Amino acid sequence: MRLKNVSGIITGIVLVLIIVSILPSLIQPAVAAAPNLPNNSCADCHRKLIFTSESQRQFVDIRIKHLESGISCSIVCHEDKLNKSVASTYAMWSISTHALFDVTCEKCHGGNASAASKNVAHIGVSNLSEARASTPEMCGKCHESQLDEFKSSKHFKKLESDEEGPAPACITCHQAHSVHVLTASEIEDFCSNCHNRITGINPTVPKKAEAALSSVSELQIEISKARSTVTAAKAKGGDVTRAEADLESARAILKNTPSVWHRFNLTYFDMEVQKGIEDAKKAENESAGMQASPAPTKAPGFELILLITGLIIAYRLKRN
């Protein structure tokens, strides 16, 4: 009896193992099979597409042309994509420097921001995005000094020439709506998008750009140190005229670095920053340890004469 129970248990375990090993092969085809959705062009098309296929690239091109032409698509998927794009654009702008200084949509895209109705507000607004090549002139309406420097750069000359290959405009580096200013830690990776061994466009630029932009932090530190030293020397009554002039020169260079950067001449940029650092250090050295100017010695005045006269009168009165 006991032997029969053991035999039954073993048989049951074997059956379970067989079922477990066969079950995935029975279920997998059902899970992997595409749903049967007849007369659904969206599902039929998307099911066949992969990101690396020629069909996918064609689909993306068609969709971009739809959006650029202002075609309103009735398919829910496309409407969601467009709405998300518009919402994302506004979200990026709302936390940008432009939003902080009240640079609103119409400044770049046109239209009437004071209009109450949508139709009137959108008069003059193009359905197309602002042309990338025209952004320097548009941005230059507010950023005049940056545009002046940019026009002397190789980047601008390439952009104007309409030659093949990458030619950066304002939105290439700063993005259209977030208006991002690249930091020293970001600049190397960003410049490497164009300046690399594959493109053959001077791959040494990214490292040099990072070093040049990092030197601005050193200039800021030296100006801060010099300012503290000059202030302390001035409080002691020291003559800080020369030190203040050198400090002001360093400050002017720092203020002008955003404009000079847009010349994209890293050698010139680094020379300017180094000059500012030298001026700041000179101001600090000129005011360091400065003592107060000694008070001028006064010539004997009326008070001294009065004192001597009083002593003489007192002496004579005592003798009499």
Task: Describe the protein in words.
This protein has helices at residues 2-32, 41-48, 54-68, 76-94, 97-100, 105-109, 118-121, 135-139, 144-150, 154-161, 170-174, 184-191, 205-235, 241-261, 266-287, 302-319. With 320 residues, it is mainly α. It has 16 helices and no strands. The model is unreliable at 26-52 and 74-79 (pLDDT under 50). The longest helix is centred in the first third of the chain and has 31 residues, at 2-32. It has a domain at 206-287. The radius of gyration is 38 Å and the shape is elongated.
Using brief descriptors, characterize the structure shown.
single chain, 320 residues, mainly alpha, 16 helices, 0% strand, elongated
Form type: elongated
What is the helical fraction, as a range of percent? 55-70%
What string gives the helices and strands in order?
HHHHHHHHHHHHHHHH
Instruction: Determine Rg (CA atoms, Å).
Output: 38 Å
What is the end-to-end distance? Answer: 155 Å
**Mean model confidence by pLDDT:** 76
Structural class: mainly alpha
Give a nutshell description of this structure.
With 320 residues, the protein is mostly helical.
List the helices and strands and how they pair.
Layout: H1 2-32, H2 41-48, H3 54-68, H4 76-94, H5 97-100, H6 105-109, H7 118-121, H8 135-139, H9 144-150, H10 154-161, H11 170-174, H12 184-191, H13 205-235, H14 241-261, H15 266-287, H16 302-319
Helix pairs in contact: 9-14, 12-13, 13-14, 13-15, 14-15
